[in-house]
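Table S2 (continued). Query chain:
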Amino acid sequence: MRLRSKARGAAILATAACTAISLAAVPASAQTQASSQPPAAKAKDPSRIICEKVEETGSRLSAKRVCMTAQQWQDKRRSDREYVEDSQQRSLEPTSG
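Corresponding output:
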């Protein structure tokens, strides 16, 4: 039982680290399609494509380019944040045993 708890803790820690890395990533390019909209309107468009470099877990040198819409990035960051907060909350709860 204790081994399973340690493995789950390690998985939570790895996920938290990946989340922190992805939240710290800087957008590589803002939009791939040309548009006649003013720059302020482009920044608010949830369907614009944003590409970011995401470091590979376990490597300082390897990174891959991930492209998603602004809405998908926002949803991913929100779900990652919720997962980390939930994991932190569960770690504070007393365990029976």
